[in-house]
Amino acid sequence: MNTPSLDDLIELGAVQDAQGLQGQIKVRPHSSDPVALLSSKELWLSLIPRRNAVVATSPEQASLKLYKVKQAKMHSGTVVIALDGITDRDQAEALKGARILVARDVFPGTDEDSYYWVDLIGCKAVNIQGDNLGEVIDVNDNGAHGIIVLGDSETKTVKQLVPFVKEAVQNVDLPNRLITLDWQPDW
What we know:
The chain has helices at residues 35-39, 89-93, 117-120, and strands at 9-19, 24-29, 42-46, 64-75, 78-83, 99-103, 124-127, 132-141, 146-152, 157-164, 169-173, 178-181. By secondary structure, it is mainly β.
């Protein structure tokens, strides 16, 4: 298998702890519906925690290691994963804090009008009048619905938070990286 570029790997969660005695890991998913994490047959672990990460230009610099997934299941809000080659609790505990990444091209397909949040990041947002509202720099979940964070991608300055609901989102054009909103710049 060819090693994907770091741009093609999507972070889906982090190893929270070991689970049981047989080497399973307990993963704290970044999504409330971790379908991509649960369906992946292989995943990459990065042993460099995000907060201490240096800019890496290759998988080797990012301390990435590919693992085959033997089993993945939901358990009390976490995902418990059995990895090929991790056979005891000590090995699993050594992975605590590792970031879980999956190649974007193995994500399951989405229904029409459904989107992976990671695909929205970097899209330009305009309102129906054509005003530039900024770029989607993050997407969060408030429990009721998604929230797109608009701002400046270079400075990470937040300009607005917009609910990702049908009343506000008029169109998502992923091929052109454009989201049209029924929203005003001063709201």
